[in-house]
Amino acid sequence: LASLLANGFCANTVHFGSGGGLLQKVNRDSLSVAFKCCAMYVGDKCFSIGKDPIAGGKKSYPGNPPVIRDAAGVLRNRGKYNEKGEMLEAHPMSNEEFRTGVKGDVLRTVFKDGKMVYDQ
């Protein structure tokens, strides 16, 4: 908590744990928010972050995914899909693409280094 305060975060806006058993009965659904992490950039190096639990069903693809509108107008992560539209393989951004952008990517950086950089 001290590190968050030292970096300018307000303690009232930080939630530790978002499981179903919180005493305040607050969860990410009641707050209409979820934060996910798929890649971490340190300098010019990218570290992909993903999960593939043994129990299954909650797999996430590692790497920073560009979101592009397909020919039918559907927004999808860039990747390989089967005929049912299920993702088989993600094609995340390279370091260079992250720096320069990907044509057609609709994702926007909203917060960067603790500051809001894009507001609708």
What can you tell me about this protein's structure?
- There is one protein chain.
- This protein is mainly beta and 120 residues long.
- It has helices at residues 2-6, 95-100, and strands at 39-42, 45-48, 67-69, 75-77, 79-81, 87-90, 111-112, 115-116.
- The protein has a domain at 1-35.
- It has two helices and eight strands, in the order αββββββαββ.
- A two-stranded antiparallel ribbon has the order 1-2. A two-stranded antiparallel ribbon has the order 3-4. It has a two-stranded antiparallel sheet with strand order 5-6.
- The longest helix has 6 residues, at 95-100.
- It is globular.
- The two termini are 30 Å apart.
- Helix-strand string: HEEEEEEHEE
- Beta-strand share of residues: 15-25%
Give the end-to-end Cα distance, rounded to a whole number of Å: 30 Å
Radius of gyration: 17 Å
Question: Helix count, per DSSP?
Answer: 2
Poorly predicted runs are none
Strand order of the largest sheet: 1-2
Overall 3D geometry?
Answer: globular
Residue-averaged pLDDT:
82
Helix content: under 10%
The chain-level structural class is: mainly beta
Outline the biggest β-sheet. Answer: 2 strands, antiparallel
The count of β-strands is: 8
GO molecular function, one term: nicotinamide phosphoribosyltransferase activity
Organism: Strombidinopsis acuminata
Pfam families: NAPRTase (PF04095)
Pathway: Cofactor biosynthesis; NAD(+) biosynthesis
